[in-house]
Every structure is written in C-alpha cells, then in structure tokens.
Design goal:
TIM Barrel, eight-stranded parallel β-barrel, two-stranded antiparallel sheet, 13 helices, binds flavin mononucleotide
C-alpha cells in the first residue's frame, strides 16, 4: 500500500487531505468525526480580527478603529464575550484528544494590534496559523501594489511574534499572483492556501433585493485553482501550496497534487457528502498510486505543473484561442 504521508508547513500529516476552516471545524466533537474519517489535518473555523479586538480593549464599542460607524452595531451583535477564550479552549481540546495537526485560523483585514494574540494561539497548542486576509478594495485611488502591502505586513508582523508556521489564504483577485506569492514567501509565510471562496452577492430581480449566491462550491470551481497551483508551484519553490475550492473527490485531490499542491483542503464536499468523503478520497489516492506504481506522494507531486508538462501553454493564454475556436 502506498505511503500517503505528507509534509505541510513543516508538519507531518498522515495524508494530504486537510479539512478547510468552516463550521465543520468549530467544535471538538465535530472534529472527532473528521479525525475518525482519516483527515490529515484540520483548519479550525476562523476567529475574526474584530472578535480579537473586542476582547483586547472593547474599542469597537466606542467606535475606535472602525471606519464605518454603521458597522459598529453589526459587530456588537456579532461578537460576544469570551469568544477568544472559547477559541483557545477549542485548540487545547483538539490537541488533547487528537493526534493530527491543528491549524488555527484568523480572518483579518489589518496588520495591527490583534497580531500579538497569535502568540496565545501558539501557547494553546496550535501547530500552525492560517491567516485569511479579507478586504474588498473599492477605492479607485489606491494602487494595487498599495493594497498588496497589507498581505506582506500581516505575514511579517505575525511571523515576528510566533514560532509556528504561518500560511496565508488568498483570494483569486491579484493582477500578478505569482509575484504576490513570491513576496509572501520571503516575508515569513511558509504556505499559501489557493483560494478562498468569498461570499458572492447576487440580485433577486423580482424582489429587487440583494441575495447571496450558493454558499457551497461545485466540482467545476476547481479548475481555476488547478491552473494557478500548477503555475505557482513551478515559479515559487519555497512555499507550500494548499489547494482549495471545488475539491470534491479523490480525482480532484490527485489532480491538485499533480499540479504541485502539497495538500488539498476540502469543505463543501464534506457539507454535501459527510465526513465519509474524506475516507473515499484517501482510498482513491492510495489505489491510484498503487495502480501507477508510486510509493510516496513526493514521487508524483508537481509532475504536471507548469514547468514539467511539454505544453505549458495549456495553463496559459495560448490555449484560449484553441478552446473557443471549436465553437463556430
Ligand atoms: C459554511 C462555510 C463556512 C466557512 N467559514 C470559513 C471561515 O471561517 N474561515 C475561512 O477561512 N474560510 C471559511 N470558509 C471557506 C472554506 O474554508 C473554503 O475555503 C471554501 O468553502 C472553498 O472550499 P470548498 O470548495 O471545498 O468549499 C467557509 C465555507 C463555508 C461553506
């Protein structure tokens, strides 16, 4: 039987299937089911920067540090006391009970005072920290480079205060993603998660109101991830890539590993199919490796990335013309 062990962010995982940050990972009990199904690691549900700041100084109640006064009421309703303590207990509880890496997650939009709190997560036993940097940039006067600085600052500031590895969960919206990942890799980030799937607004034309699009992904959503994993894994070597979005089954897992991902994160498929899909993915990976004669994951990881395939244009613009020319 093939050996599925994987090193991600310097941590030893028994296989490359990681459960994404979500409601699936917000309690010790729920995580027990994911561990039983064979998950290689879990990323805990995110703690929000606002929740940490609330705990630090209650400043949001006074409106300090919040650019939009209307947001204060929302944040007041959203955050409650002891959330941070509960989060630390979640980390401790998981580490006491389970023998897999536990990655804590913070959703942030600045590199400010919350950063010191990362130390408490480390002290509680988190094996690594995943930072989900989420800002929707709508200011026409801010250059992209200015906006990107936030990512490097977050990465640097957090890496300065903790000894555990740090990864950054990215969205797809960068004009030069390869450059951004390269800069992150030299500013303290050991891994990138590509990609977060942001909340997507929609419009109900009958009710003339705002709605949100489907929360869960479909397997077709995986292709954008596949392209960028293949390109980034070739161009930036000193960073681990955790593929995320649309990875619903064992085949998708294998494709992402071939493209160069170190791990694949799964969320929607577990919501849809239950934790058993983790077991199925691991079994599929093992049987495929046996069939192909691979003993370990590193024997084939990245074998189909941008630099290894004979036609790298398949991941690029050249393919665009061929793709559409079939449809007259
Ligand atoms: C219900 C739900 C809750 C989520 N909560 C978080 C979260 O707290 N932090 C985070 O970084 N991502 C969160 N995500 C995003 C997932 O971690 C993941 O990146 C996204 O769903 C894409 O992966 P998928 O296609 O496997 O679902 C959430 C997703 C869902 C569906």
């Amino acid at each position: 039987m093939a050996n599925l062990e994987t090193k991600y962010l310097g941590l030893n995982l028994k296989n490359p299937v990681v459960v994404s940050s979500s409601g699936l990972t917000n309690s010790v009990e729920k995580i027990g089911k994911l561990v039983d199904a064979g998950a290689g690691a879990v990323v805990l549900k995110s703690l929000f920067e606002e929740q940490i700041n609330h705990e630090i100084n209650n400043s949001i109640y006074k409106g300090e540090g919040v650019d939009y006064p209307e947001a204060i009421d929302y944040i007041k309703g959203y955050t409650r006391d002891n959330e941070v303590g509960d989060y630390l207990n979640l980390i401790k509880g998981c580490k006491e009970k389970y023998d897999i890496p536990v990655i804590a997650s913070i959703n942030c939009f600045s590199a400010d005072e919350w950063v010191d709190f990362a130390q408490q997560m480390e002290a509680a036993g988190a094996d690594a920290l995943e930072l989900n940097v989420f800002v929707v940039n709508t200011d026409k006067n801010i250059e992209s480079a200015e906006y990107e600085k936030l990512y490097y600052e977050v990465s640097k500031n957090v890496a300065k205060v903790v000894n555990i590895p740090v990864s950054i969960k990215l969205g797809l919206y960068f004009s030069n993603l390869v450059n951004v990942v390269n800069k992150l890799s030299v500013s303290g980030t050991q891994g990138v998660v590509m990609f977060n799937r942001f909340y997507e607004p929609d419009i109900d034309i009958n009710k003339m109101s705002m709605t949100s699009a489907e929360v869960l992904s479909s397997s077709a959503d995986m292709r954008r991830t596949l392209r960028w994993v293949a390109i980034v894994s070739d161009k930036v070597q000193n960073v681990d890539i955790s593929a995320s979005t649309g990875i619903h089954d064992g085949e998708a897992l294998i494709k992402q590993l071939l493209a160069g991902a170190t791990t694949a994160q799964v969320c929607s498929s577990i919501y849809k199919n239950g934790p058993k899909v983790i077991t199925e993915m691991i079994e599929k990976l093992g049987s495929w490796m046996d069939e192909k004669g691979y003993d370990k994951v590193s024997d084939f990881r990245g074998a189909m990335n941008y630099g290894k395939i004979t036609e790298p244009g398949m991941y690029e613009r050249a393919q665009f013309m061929k793709y559409f020319s079939k449809y007259e």
